[in-house]
Design brief:
- The longest helix has 20 residues.
- It is built from 3 helices and no strands.
- It is 61% helix and 0% strand.
- It has one domain.
- By secondary structure, it is an all-alpha fold.
């Protein structure tokens, strides 16, 4: 994910946690029906593909805006796992 302007680059573990949260949110948005309106993009073969891009972009923006706290939990778990080595 693209770092926010003015924020130091995140560690690889933090980036992985944020990507995982974004993937989870995108799936939840899909389950909630975002992008499934009939002919939202005028219909056609590529409609579902473009709807998935929209969901992914929205999920990534949600994470950049603070998310729902999953990235923090994932990051903590990764750090604890790393400390166990």
């Amino acid at each position: 994910m693209t770092p926010r302007p003015g924020v130091a680059a995140a560690s690889p573990a933090r980036e992985a946690a944020e990507r995982l949260e974004a993937a989870f949110l995108a799936e939840m948005l899909k389950a909630a029906g975002l992008g499934t309106q009939p002919k939202a993009f005028g219909g056609g073969i590529g409609e579902e593909q473009f709807a998935s891009f929209q969901r992914q972009a929205l999920a990534e923006e949600m994470v950049r805006s603070g998310g729902i706290g999953l990235a923090d939990s994932f990051y903590q778990a990764l750090m604890e796992k790393n400390d166990d080595r």
